[in-house]
Each structure stands twice: as C-alpha cells, then as structure tokens.
Write a structure and sequence with these properties.
Layout lengths: L1 H16 L2 H19 L7 E2 L8 E2 L2 H47 L15 H14 L3 E4 L10 E5 L2 E8 L5 E2 L1 H14 L3 E6 L2 E2 L1 H8 L3 E4 L1 H9 L27 E5 L9 E5 L8 E3 H4 L1
Parallel strand pairs: 5-7, 6-8, 7-9
Antiparallel strand pairs: 1-2, 3-4, 4-5, 10-11, 11-12
Helix pairs in contact: 1-3, 2-3, 3-4, 5-6
C-alpha cells in the first residue's frame, strides 16, 4: 500500500510540473486507455496438472489488468486534473504576487526600500519569479519542490536554455559555493546560461566567478527593477565581454555561449560552445574572441 501511495504521489508531483494543457491531455488519454482495458471481456479458462492440482487461470494477467483498469480509469485522470489545477493555482498566485509587488515598489513610500519579498515563503518567492519571467516572454518550468536547493526554474526563449536558482530572502549574502553549484547544473543539463536571484546581495568572490561565466546575478536592487518593469523584451542580459550575436559557431553558424571545460587537459578553462549542444559540438577558444 505504501508503494502504491508513493507512486500516486510521484505522479501527482509530475503532473504539477507539466503545462496545464499537457496534464489535461494526459488525463484524457489515460482515461481512454484504462477505460478500453476495463471493457475487455475475458472468459476465464483454467488448467491443472498432476504437479499442480489447483486450477490456475491461464489468462490471470489480463484478468488483473481488467480489474485494476476499472479503478485506474478514474484515479489516474483525477490525479492529472489535480496537478493541472494546482499548476493553474500556482500560476495565478504568482501573477497576483507580481501585481502586488509592482504596486508596492511603484508607490512613493516603497521606492527606497528593499523588494517586498521578505514576507514571502520560498514557494511564493519562486512563484513570483516564475510570473516575472513569463511576463518577459519566457517559457517557465518549475523544478521539483524543495526549500532553496538546486535549480528552481528552467527558462526557454529563442532556443536559449536558462537555469534559474532562487535564493530565498533568508540568504542575505550569497557566496561562491552557490555559483559553483549552478555551474555544475548548467553543464549537466547542457544549458546555455544561468541566473541566480536573491533579495540580498552577493560576495565579491561570487560576483567575480559569475562574471567569468555566463551567469547573471540579480541582487535586491536589480530584483526591484525586474519586478517593476512591465515588460523587458530583451530579457536578462548575461555577463559577457562580447555580444553573443557577433559570435557564430564555426560548424553551424548558430550563436555561442561561454562554458567551462569539466575534464581533459583544459579542465576548468573557459571556451565558447555552441548553443545547439549536444546536437552541435562546435567550439572556439575564449582568447580568440575576447
């Protein structure tokens, strides 16, 4: 029973991370599949042998599938619908938080104060950031829930894959360890760049390491500007001394982004990598283009 509950909980968590339309489509498909399986008419047939005198149905597997499908045709679609509703509710809360934050920041008494996020939980903080990035035209995907651990959001826009780590307001000063952690996540996911958002600030070492890589740091003051802006068509600029538009992949002529070699003779060194990785593995030395 515990394993069944765990499987259903995992399915619900997955459904909450899916786009609402994908959850709705999954609910419809799962209902049709399990409903069809539950309608299969199976005539029980048994055989017995001298070694096993107790009759055992030859088609026991199909009988069990039909029995379980009778219940799963309602349970599984319901889970997907619950995930869809939870996703829509979270999105609506994020939009409301964004509107409220903008009103507070734009009011005269809030102009010189930190962003109005100190009273938010970490879930609300992430929902607020998700709404902010959606307002900028990004496709936003939430990661598995967790209090301030690892990648929180995944952004996609113009074929660019960006990972976002949201440091809750309790992290007033973000250190270099967080930058290294996100660098590892970027490499593992094959992402193009990363963003770390906090209502506090960053240590000098953290700012230096982020500046050497394609990671954008958003501190409390920048967060206030980000929340206040109605739209920002250009998105968030990344730390780079050369515009990506001027850097073309030598193989496919796509744009390139800075990466860090994880192994080999050049481990730890920066290089320009194609944004279409792993489909394209074109590279350029950083020294070649600045």
């Amino acid at each position: 029973m515990a394993r069944k509950a765990s499987a259903l909980n995992d399915l619900l968590r997955m459904a909450t991370l899916m786009p609402w339309w994908a959850s709705l489509l999954s609910a419809l498909i799962s209902f049709l599949v399990f409903h069809a399986l539950s309608l299969i008419e199976i005539t029980p047939s048994t055989t017995s042998t001298p070694n096993n005198p107790i009759p055992v149905p030859d088609n026991l597997s199909w009988i069990l599938i039909g029995v379980f499908s009778t219940y799963l045709q309602y349970i599984v679609p319901l889970i997907f619908l619950m995930g869809m509703i939870a996703n829509l509710v979270r999105r609506d809360k994020g939009d409301r938080l964004l509107s409220r934050s903008r009103r507070r920041i734009q009011s005269k008494e809030q102009k010189q104060t930190p962003p109005p996020v100190n009273d938010l939980s970490w879930q609300q903080f992430e929902s607020l950031l998700a709404a902010t990035f959606r307002a900028q035209g990004y496709q936003v995907k939430h990661s598995l829930p967790g209090p301030d651990g690892g990648v929180d959001l995944t952004l996609k826009k113009d074929r660019t894959h960006t990972l976002v780590q949201a440091k809750h307001w309790k992290s007033q000063r973000v250190g270099v360890a967080v930058i290294r952690e996100l660098l590892g996540s970027i490499t593992a996911a094959g992402a193009d760049k990363g963003i770390i958002v906090t209502s506090g600030s960053f240590t000098p070492d953290a700012s230096k390491l982020a500046g050497q890589n394609d990671i954008k740091l958003v501190d409390g003051q920048q967060l206030a500007k980000l929340l206040e802006a109605e739209t920002q068509p250009g998105g968030i600029e990344t730390h780079s001394t050369v515009s990506k538009a001027t850097i073309e992949c030598p193989r496919c002529q796509s744009s390139m982004t800075k990466r860090i070699a994880q192994r080999g003779a050049h481990a730890g060194e920066q290089f320009w990598g194609c944004t279409r990785f792993p489909q394209c593995r074109g590279t350029r030395p950083v020294q070649e283009l600045g």
